[in-house]
Amino acid sequence: MNLRIGSRGSQLALWQANHIAGLLRSQGHSVEIEIIKTTGDRLQEVTFAQVGAKGMFTLEIEEALAAGRIDLAVHSLKDLPTELPAGFALAATPPRVDARDAFVSVHYASLLALPSGARVGSSSQRRRAQLKALRHDLEVVEFRGNVDTRLRKLAEGQVDAVLLAAAGLERLGRTELIRERLDVNHFCPAAGQGALAIETREDDAATMDAVAFLDDPDTRFAVTAERAALAALGGGCQVPIGVHCRRVQREWVPQVPLSGPGNDNRDWASPAARDEIFAVVAEPDTGAVVRIFHGSIHGEMDAETLGRFAAAMLLDAGAGPLLTSASGVSG
C-alpha cells in the first residue's frame, strides 16, 4: 500500500515522520512524506499568547488530510487539540518515550543551582508557571523557535538555561546539554508529552488498518487519561495545566484479610499494575499552584474516567480560580 504522510518541516517533525515511515516500510508499505507549513511555523517570532494556540500546528495538515492529499499525519501528541475535528481519528499512539521536561544549561548543573535573577527561556505557559512556583526569583524569557534555534540562543548567552521536552532532545540526539530531567512530582509534563499521534480520516479503513500495529496500549491508556483531564478542565495545549499518567508495576503485595496476629500466614497476591496520574494547574504571573496525585490498581478505572477524576480532584483542591485567571492566556 502506498501511504502519504503529512508533516511539519522542522527537524524534529521530520525525524518523527521518517521514524514512522521506516516502521511502515518494514511492514511492506511504500511511503512518501509531504512537508506542510502550519500557522505555528509561519509565526515563529510571535508569542503563543498573541497568535492563540488551538490547532496552530495541525490545522493546515488536517486540511490536507481532509482533501485527500495525504493519508495520515504524524504529530507530537501534545500539539493535538483534545477534541479532534469531525471526520478525523487518532488511529495510533506509538510507544511513548521520556515524557519529562529537561533543564538545559551550559554552566549550571540543575534548576536549583541557578543564581537568583538568572534568565530561563521558555515559550510554554505551563513551564513558566511551574518554574515561577519553584523559583520565584528567576526571570522567564519568551523563547520561540525550533530546538536548534533555542539551543543556539542558549549557547550565545541570551539565557542561562532553557526548558525543553526531553523527548525532542533525545530524538534529535541533542542530549549533551541536559543537566536535569525534572521529576513529574514537582514539574508536571503537558498532556501527551513524549508521545506521537497518528491521525487519519475516520472513514479511511485501509489506512487505519495499516497503522494499527503502531498502537501501544499502555501509551494509549496514559494519553487518553491525560487528554480527558485536560478536556474536563477546558484546557488546550498551551493552557498552564500539566497532566501525566503512567503505569507502574508494584512489588508482590499481601492479600487482605491477613491471618494471624503477626500475619505469619499471609497469602500473597501477584504483582499489581498501578495507574498513577499527576496533575497541576499553575498561574504564570504569581506561581500560585494546585497539584494532585491519584493512584489506583489497573482496571479499577478506564482511562477517561481516571482523567476526569483527576480533573475533579484539581477543582476540589481549588484550581478553579487559577484556571479563570489563565483564561485567554495562551502559551
Describe the structure.
The protein is α/β, with parallel strands linked by helices and 331 residues long. It is built from eleven helices and 15 strands. Helix 1 (11-25) links the parallel strand 1 (2-7) and strand 2. Helix 9 (217-232) runs parallel beside helix 10 (303-316). The longest helix has 16 residues, at 217-232. The model is unreliable at 256-269 (pLDDT under 50).
Task: Tell me the layout of helices and strands.
Layout: E1 2-7, H1 11-25, E2 30-35, H2 39-42, H3 48-51, H4 59-67, E3 72-76, E4 88-92, E5 101-104, E6 119-121, H5 125-134, E7 139-141, H6 147-155, E8 161-165, H7 166-171, E9 178-181, E10 196-201, H8 205-211, H9 217-232, E11 241-249, E12 253-254, E13 268-269, E14 273-282, E15 289-297, H10 303-316, H11 320-326
Parallel strand pairs: 1-2, 1-3, 6-7, 6-8
Antiparallel strand pairs: 3-10, 4-10, 5-8, 5-9, 11-14, 12-13, 14-15
Helix pairs in contact: 9-10
